[in-house]
Amino acid sequence: MQEDKQVNQDDTVKLKLRRVIFGTDTRLGRYFDISLIVCIILSVTLVFLDTIAAVHSKYGDIIGIFEWCFTIIFTIEYLLRLYCSAQPIQYVRSFYGVVDLLSILPSYLALFFPGANFTLVIRILRLFRIFRVLKLLRYLSEGNVLLRAMLQSGRKVFIFFFSVSLIVVVLSSIMFVVEGPGNGFTSIPKSIYWTIVTITTVGYGDITPETSLGQAIAAFTMLLGYSIIAIPTGILTAEISQEMVRSKDLRRCSNCLKTGHEKDAIYCDHCGSELETEI
Amino acid sequence: MQEDKQVNQDDTVKLKLRRVIFGTDTRLGRYFDISLIVCIILSVTLVFLDTIAAVHSKYGDIIGIFEWCFTIIFTIEYLLRLYCSAQPIQYVRSFYGVVDLLSILPSYLALFFPGANFTLVIRILRLFRIFRVLKLLRYLSEGNVLLRAMLQSGRKVFIFFFSVSLIVVVLSSIMFVVEGPGNGFTSIPKSIYWTIVTITTVGYGDITPETSLGQAIAAFTMLLGYSIIAIPTGILTAEISQEMVRSKDLRRCSNCLKTGHEKDAIYCDHCGSELETEI
Amino acid sequence: MQEDKQVNQDDTVKLKLRRVIFGTDTRLGRYFDISLIVCIILSVTLVFLDTIAAVHSKYGDIIGIFEWCFTIIFTIEYLLRLYCSAQPIQYVRSFYGVVDLLSILPSYLALFFPGANFTLVIRILRLFRIFRVLKLLRYLSEGNVLLRAMLQSGRKVFIFFFSVSLIVVVLSSIMFVVEGPGNGFTSIPKSIYWTIVTITTVGYGDITPETSLGQAIAAFTMLLGYSIIAIPTGILTAEISQEMVRSKDLRRCSNCLKTGHEKDAIYCDHCGSELETEI
Amino acid sequence: MQEDKQVNQDDTVKLKLRRVIFGTDTRLGRYFDISLIVCIILSVTLVFLDTIAAVHSKYGDIIGIFEWCFTIIFTIEYLLRLYCSAQPIQYVRSFYGVVDLLSILPSYLALFFPGANFTLVIRILRLFRIFRVLKLLRYLSEGNVLLRAMLQSGRKVFIFFFSVSLIVVVLSSIMFVVEGPGNGFTSIPKSIYWTIVTITTVGYGDITPETSLGQAIAAFTMLLGYSIIAIPTGILTAEISQEMVRSKDLRRCSNCLKTGHEKDAIYCDHCGSELETEI
């Protein structure tokens, strides 16, 4: 009986913590989330600033201390999540569980494996910390609408990218033969790099065609890239347009069955009866 | 009685001036606005030309005199606006009030604070004068249609830019590790600059990847930028399309209730009765 | 009587010539037009090839002879047009009349005004010959559909370009102050050139920001350019979509009054009666 | 009788082989196709890697052996296709027949024509092998939807590209005169190359305007390119949108004649009767 109560009390603490840490519907839960986001952004900003040589030599030590503070905060957060999660093993295996672990592990690993290549390894490991930022995605579920439109146009976009890849490969081979290693096209993979730089209209200018024929093919490649940029735009726009019309059609008045109400309409514009909230 | 009349007369002058200066519905008001726009464009053009070394050494003095003329004209305009405004304090605090003041203040400040760093300070202060151009916005209210479409798609665009920022941060960190300070990627902030240059397909070529792995990641970044350029276009296009259909639906014939009339239609195309002017 | 016949015969020749030269509905007229287009393209190609130093030194003489042949052909064509036109003066004053004259005049002027700066002047005058290409426009009337969509979205596009200009001017001034003449931003006009290169995502890389603040502003400029590219696309797409729907609505069956027939439909899909040809 | 049986047996083998090699509806046929695709990608990847100097000097011999293996595999495949095709001559003349032959011929030609310019010729011939990749297109018929939309907007796009060509030619000539051979604009064809680099917003920076007037024209060219990028996007988007609506309209319920069903709908949303599969 005594034990049972203890377990019950534990459960109550767990439940409360879970609502704060995993939930976003209580005031404390929101405060927790917001302060976590601030910590993530601050810690990533520090890692970034530390890579500037001038900043590192001056403030490197202070940044190091701050980084340890953030690591400890995130470790406590990870342990709390493990403790109050309903299914801890499922959490550990989930995408965010892995990201949470990866964002604290590097700092500890750097402690146990110091040595000659100390600095570099740390730097690389530290960079995994930016995955902490990915946690921010948790707080945004609006992206789903865009994602759905993108997935629905996925098949068409795949064919588009497949065709572009074929064109890139063919053009790269031709340019490799036409320009040759003397003009910077040292190999076909490098030629593919040049073609992508050109077809996406980036145009660094680190490799440029020198021969007349090469410049003619380059001009053709640019016009091609300029034209085909229209295709994914067209596909996606048509898909988003349809998605919008569809979501409007879903708003059907349960009284007179008229559809096509605006997303923010409250009453049916035909019979005046109240509309159900959007699905 | 005498005083009252005086006040009334003053009020009449004020009212007339207000209609000319703030209004655009009288012929004089339109003339005033147009000559003001011409003055603004001329004065800004002069400031711009003055920054060219060859022009400054030759015509610097004449440009200086012209600038003072424009400053005096704009000062008189500012005082007149203050005088004839119905609520002078509200005008001073409004966006255009502040801009009007900022566009004349620098010239006077340059008078009172000359010194060693004379030229540079003047130049910087003078540049604030370009805010005068912002006044032109006052004469265009058509932009609201575009603004509304942009605001309505704001939430989707925000998520888009948030996702792009995350991708930029992750790619920048990876490129910093892969290429390193030796190839121009001296710090993560600089790496972020490179990623933005690449993902927006600007491609200056001041920093370019040298290693094979770096070039592969760069190629991926470009293709990504090339693809995601489609997303905001798709969102905005769908929104503008809907906005157009909506404004057409608003044109309802008050006689037979038929909707969907063209923006420039005058008579209902179903019953022939005159349509109300567009809302 | 005799004279009258003569006049009539002359008129018949004129009419026949007019149908061949100005019309495109006879077989001879089509042959005339096609051979004229071929002549124009050949003559312009020759002018272009002649500017390559290697080609000029080798084949300069032959090209010169060919150019004279084309000039004579186009002169005969011009005189014939003058002769058989119903209103010769109207033709001379029309856009194509002026272009036709401009495309033959330079060669003759080069004959009468030789001198010291012979080569250069000729070259510049010769270049006017490319206006001959503009004649090709005569053979395409399909562009009107696109033009109408563009004109209808003109007001919105103007506001867009006006806003972009304001942003460009403000950003240019800021960059001039931040980077200064030392880093290539020698004057505000040059700074405007840099801003346009950046905001249109061209990115030559001849002028690039060197300071951290400058690079941050540049990154902002790029993201801005990347975003606002969506706006004219959205406006034009919505306009073209509407134009297509409108042209479909115009296809109304005169029997049952049903609208919305496809552009290439021949029979009404509701009552089966023949549709009128497209307006 | 015996012979007839033999012929029949042969025919059965042929038919079975044909179903495996040309068909995709049996399990073996799918396995055959997938293994063929893997072979094609592997062989092309090897050709590409072989062009890297470091890889060639180390693994050149092994890659050579592998290439011969692939050549033999593709030769056997070609002979089998010839053998079991219903109309062998039609196959040889078809697009894929020519591509299949071109992808194996170079390796054999390299055997019979060795010599002084051995390496280069082989390399060029080898590159034709990438046409093997084109075979992949056979496995994708989804592209037709996109192709149809593109063909339908073909006339408008042609006029667009024709106008762009005219603008490019005129701007190139002007830039050639303004900048001249001293600033990299050595001939009009080169000037055309620069204009295309600029108008497509690629912007290599290998040729950049040096004079003020040239930079002003360049800025105009960029803004033009930035604006006209919207036109093909608009055309194609409107066309794809219409194509989608049209394919929805085609889904008509045979019971109540209601149209406009979703592409993946199974039952009519008005009377509940089953819909026919999509056309």
TrEMBL record, chains A, B, C, D:
Organism per entry: Shewanella hanedai (Alteromonas hanedai)
What does the record list as coiled-coil region(s)? none
Q: Which SUPFAM superfamilies match?
A: Voltage-gated potassium channels (SSF81324)
Q: Which InterPro entries match?
A: Ion_trans_dom (IPR005821), VG_K_chnl (IPR028325), Volt_channel_dom_sf (IPR027359)
Q: Where in the cell is it found?
A: Membrane
Q: Which GO terms describe its molecular function?
A: voltage-gated potassium channel activity
Q: Which residues cross the membrane?
A: 34-55, 103-125, 157-178, 216-238
- GO CC entries: voltage-gated potassium channel complex
Q: How does it sit in the membrane?
A: Multi-pass membrane protein
| GO BP field | action potential
Q: Tell me where it mainly resides.
A: membrane
- Protein name listed in UniProt: Ion transporter
UniProt entry keywords in alphabetical sequence: Ion channel, Ion transport, Membrane, Potassium, Potassium channel, Potassium transport, Transmembrane, Transmembrane helix, Transport, Voltage-gated channel
Q: Which residues are in the Ion transport domain?
A: 30-244
